[in-house]
Amino acid sequence: MMHKNFIPELKQRGLIQDITPGLEEQLSKESTSIYIGFDPTAESLHIGSLIPIILLMHFQKNGHKPIALVGGATGMIGDPTGKSAERNLLNEESIKKYEKGIKNQLNRFLNFENGAKNEASLVNNYDWFKDFSFLNFIRDAGKHITVNYMLAKDSVQKRLGYGLSFTEFSYQVIQGYDFYYLNKNKNVKVQAGGADQWGNITTGVEMTRKMGGTEVFAFTCPLLTKSDGGKFGKTEGGNVWLDPNLTSPYSFYQFWLNSSDEDAKKYIKIFTFLDLDKIEELIQLHDEAPHLRKLQHTLANEVTRLVHSEEDLQFAIKASNILFGKATNEDLLSLSEKQILEVMSGVPQANFEKERLNEGLPLIDLLAEAQIQNSKGASRKIVQSGGIQINKVKQTDINRVITKADLLDEKYLIIQRGRRNYHLIIFE
Description:
Layout: H1 7-12, H2 23-29, E1 33-38, H3 50-61, E2 65-70, H4 72-75, H5 92-106, E3 121-124, H6 126-129, H7 134-140, H8 147-151, H9 154-160, H10 166-169, H11 171-186, E4 188-194, H12 198-210, E5 217-221, E6 234-235, E7 238-239, H13 249-257, H14 261-271, H15 276-288, H16 294-307, H17 310-324, H18 329-333, H19 337-343, E8 349-352, E9 361-362, H20 363-369, H21 376-384, E10 388-390, E11 393-395, E12 401-402, E13 412-417, E14 421-427
Parallel strand pairs: 1-2, 1-4, 2-3, 4-5, 8-14
Antiparallel strand pairs: 6-7, 9-12, 10-11, 10-13, 13-14
Helix pairs in contact: 11-12, 13-16, 13-17, 14-16, 16-17, 20-21
């Protein structure tokens, strides 16, 4: 595979903020190793980690060697960057568990196969720090960086007002030593990270130079913000995770589908590998008919397929049609129990005893008892007007009785009131 300089493309995609001189020449000259750090703070990465993953993918696709660094040692200390309070410190057992989870997820995006010329690799800085004595560290590494240099960093300045422990103050020297170690032992010449990491990354460039390493380079990507000022990757339910057990593929798909027009124009360049000319064409089509949300649909399709699978994407589309489109009773019947619960995860639920269906449960009674309508009279009116659907079939018979034959997966009933109000009834 040819190695090449693709920095101009990354700039066009909005993936470059700060960059050290000479990086483009280095990438044009030879296949180059790059590393990016990942915090082992959970068993799964979230979509905030997608940008560094996509950067590593761009490097590997262009013939360079990606290295993912799990910050096992630094996770035990806590990075002060962007934090107004000291972080919870992790123990060794948690870090090992999180490292395994991160490796499993990165396998989906990067080629770790032995023998590939530019195979990806995973390293953990705990491996070279665990036997490094404090005295040796301050003698061999600490003497190369002055306190004046460290104090000048934005990440430190912002925390001085709140109070900054010596432990956290030392963070940038430890991260800086990672760059030197990887340069010396794995010939790594590039480090990348988020814009808030520029101070820590340039400390690494400085330390590598002072400790006799080869010439090294660095760049950062912008920190994503949403057009409404909200934090990217956060929803009412918290983080949007890459693990399908923590954030279902349906919810993941919906996150991207609900992007604003402005955000979708930015995200589609960053989070997909679609050709830039095709993206410009899509943006133009979108601007001509924004109500079709063509941009959001393409974005949601591409990212869901990338992170999950084609099968998960098709389920997410089907689930969206069930809730917001023209799904049929057959569509519901094709869902498994797990899928029914995923699609209905955010809707009101009510539980009934299954034996009540032995003699049949009048629909009017069910609507009132499940508080879908506030009285039997109101229930009767809405059924007569055709405002109730059961499992996507419109009901107009006020004498309708629910039996076990109506249940999905022998347990569930999906009641729709009007266009968008869903209720899940569970019979056990």
